[in-house]
């Protein structure tokens, strides 16, 4: 028997339920249903918290969400902590011409790259199969518009006296590489597709050279193509790649039709956020965060020692594979 649905009882619960429904792609959610049991994960949780902050003007700690992942609990937290008639000051834009700033996450990724250079494990690859004819010139112009729109793709990272420094490059033309596979037999073509996709995903980036973005168009037939998009994690993530894909589709559609783009100007850039983060997360707030995590991780193992059939090597080799399997429902 399905669990009964508890409907939203307050305007706050109603707003939160609407946001959850949109992110989870489900309707008729119960306000006491567990977010993660309904198919949510940490990336979705981050998206929801961002939406809630924009609506209610209050920053909800991710730990609070994980401790009580229900609509009713989050609504209660918001009601208890929201100041009357308060407004979010928002993230301010940097002054025009100001140098880009690295976020804490970017600085960590830069350090990892310096520690083990030339490895592709922070690449984020995406392959999109396109059916129908493609206007290659419109696609190239749409990509150029996206690179001009998002500063992150035009940012390079170099070392200055042992510290990372970001440099914003001006928008310029983008060379869209095309690979013609139409002359191959079907079996040979599929093998070549796998080879090219693997090669693209495993080719490392040089963080000192922007754009940190590669796009390749595989031409299979006049009516079928595969678009390979590869970025580095220092300028992108799974969430922003979804935004990139949606904006690319919108720009391509408007350019191919000869119409003006419907995309609204961006209110801030990622570097604006990074500067705000650096200014906000310091002093007592930073000390509270550090104290919390030091307490949570006190006595934790430095490595995850699972009972595997082979011993852990002294030096990480990165050799491995992906295996898919299903667990029975009774374990859910």
Task: Write up this protein.
This protein is 40% helix and 13% strand. It is an alpha+beta fold. It has 2 domains: 11-81, Non-ribosomal Peptide Synthetase Peptidyl Carrier Protein, Chain A (Orthogonal Bundle), CATH 1.10.1200.10; 104-273, Chloramphenicol Acetyltransferase (2-Layer Sandwich). The longest helix is centred in the last third of the chain and has 20 residues, at 238-257. The mean pLDDT is 88.
Question: What key attributes describe this structure?
Answer:
alpha+beta; 13% strand; 332 residues
Topology:
Elements: H1 11-24, H2 42-56, H3 62-67, H4 71-81, H5 104-115, E1 123-131, H6 136-149, E2 155-160, E3 163-168, E4 177-180, H7 186-202, E5 213-221, E6 224-232, H8 238-257, H9 270-280, H10 283-296
Parallel strand pairs: 4-5
Antiparallel strand pairs: 1-6, 2-3, 5-6
Helix pairs in contact: 1-2, 1-4, 6-8
Task: Please state the CA-atom Rg, rounded to the nearest Å.
Answer: 23 Å
> Are there runs of 5+ residues with pLDDT below 50, and where?
none
- Given the structure, what is the number of helices? 10
What kind of assembly state do the chains in view correspond to?
single chain
| Secondary structure: helix percent | 40-55%
What summary fits the major beta sheet? 4 strands, mixed
